[in-house]
Design brief:
With 387 residues, this protein is mainly β. Strand 2 and strand 3 form a beta hairpin. Bound molecules: fe (ii) ion (FE2).
């Protein structure tokens, strides 16, 4: 995460005594660290010992959604056609995955008291529709429509929507952290003048009174494709204060400041976050190229080293026909793709675009699930044929 944050009560010196109001019992310090003890970290101060657990059980595995003989082809599928009732976790449906990432959507329909921790993947949760509070040990993080909520691996959290009428989230899980691209920062780590966003655009957790409550609290813990249920003897949001660089935060896609050029600029210009195994870009409203003969639509291209996934958020996407909000297209590595018939010509002379979309380019192939098979547009891969 970009900068140091301190919230609530912390002792003046780390790893020293920090007593509760009674003057005798200690708050329990937890170092939440990455890359062993060498990466970014935070120190959290709990009322109770973090490892306490009453019982551990495994939930049934759900590996049945693989579509092993899915053909290598272009896909267009409509994620809004697959809705499962449930809370912010149980409503999730996986569409694409590989050893490093999982791409899902969810239409949460109900609130729940469960706590959730993804112990294997960092999560990027894009709030397509809805608003509410993301609650975690770090405090309250309000979210609104079109926020990305960036959740470090191992964070215990809940999502509370204001209402569940039409809520929708798009989730990308990654086995390595979502990083701010190195070239966006100066030598001191500050975001540079020409970066597409600035520290002020990131929202961090607000202080939430620690909850001093004993009882039985259900924590769902996901480890790769296995899921466990822990019963905790105390409320997990028992943190009186924390500080450091590692915490959940939000960033709204509307804050992204795009770059424009004289002729077509390639996708890296839309870069948002990097991971070791894929990148995240986003397309936002922008002026088109200003050369008098420019073709704003992209040229055909073979991205032979990456599968390209596009999640459509809003607007009429300039290079694709037939996509709608909530659509995903998958253009696998090794086969060329580009604008559909008429889209190149239609873009000539256009001055601007009003589209929002999120792109995930993975460096290893994605597996297509049965949820794709259920929701796909059958003849999408033929849509480049001209009568
Ligand atoms: Fe592409």
């Amino acid at each position: 995460m970009p900068f140091y944050v301190r919230v609530g009560k912390v002792p003046p010196k780390r790893h020293t005594t920090f007593y509760k109001d009674d003057g005798k019992s200690l708050y329990r310090e937890e170092l939440f660290s990455t890359q062993g003890f060498s990466g970014i970290y935070s120190n959290k101060y709990h009322m109770y010992m973090p490892p306490q657990v009453d019982s551990i059980g495994e939930l049934a595995q759900n590996n049945s959604n693989e579509w092993p003989d899915a053909p290598l082809q272009y896909y267009h599928f409509k994620t809004d056609s697959k809705q499962t009732n449930g809370d912010f976790f149980s409503a999730r449906n996986e569409f694409l995955k590989n050893d490093h990432c999982v791409i899902s959507t969810a239409h949460p329909t109900e609130d729940s008291e469960i706590f959730y921790r993804n112990s294997y993947h960092h999560e990027m949760i894009f709030v397509h529709r809805g608003e509410g509070d993301f609650l975690s040990e770090y405090g309250r993080l309000p979210f609104e429509q079109w926020d990305y909520i960036m959740v470090p691996k191992g964070t215990t959290y809940q999502m509370k929507f204001r209402n569940y009428n039409d809520a929708k989230i798009f989730i990308v899980e990654s086995d390595t952290p979502f990083e701010i691209p190195r070239h966006f920062r100066n030598e001191y780590g500050q975001l540079k003048e020409d970066a597409p966003y600035y520290e002020r655009d990131f929202k961090v957790p607000q202080f939430m009174e620690p909850i001093d409550q004993l009882g039985s609290f259900k924590l769902i813990l996901k480890v790769s494709n296995r899921t466990f249920e822990y019963e905790l003897p105390h409320h997990p949001f028992d943190v009186v204060g924390w500080d450091g660089y590692l915490y959940p935060y939000t960033f709204n896609i509307k804050e992204y400041a795009p770059k424009v050029g004289k002729i077509h600029l390639p996708p890296p210009i839309h870069l948002l976050f990097t991971t070791e195994h894929f990148v995240v870009c986003n397309f936002v409203p922008r002026l088109f190229d200003f050369h008098p003969d420019a073709i704003p639509a992209p040229y055909y291209h073979s991205n032979v080293d990456s599968d390209e996934v596009l999640y459509y958020v809003y607007g009429d996407f300039m290079s694709r026909s037939g996509v709608q909000e909530g659509s995903i297209t998958l253009h696998p590595m090794g086969i060329p793709h580009g604008p559909q018939p008429g889209k190149t010509e239609a873009s000539i002379g256009k001055k601007e675009t009003d589209e929002y979309a999120i792109m995930i380019d993975t460096f290893t192939s994605l597996k297509v699930t049965k949820n794709v098979q259920e929701t796909m547009v059958e003849d999408y891969h033929h849509s480049w044929l001209e009568n």
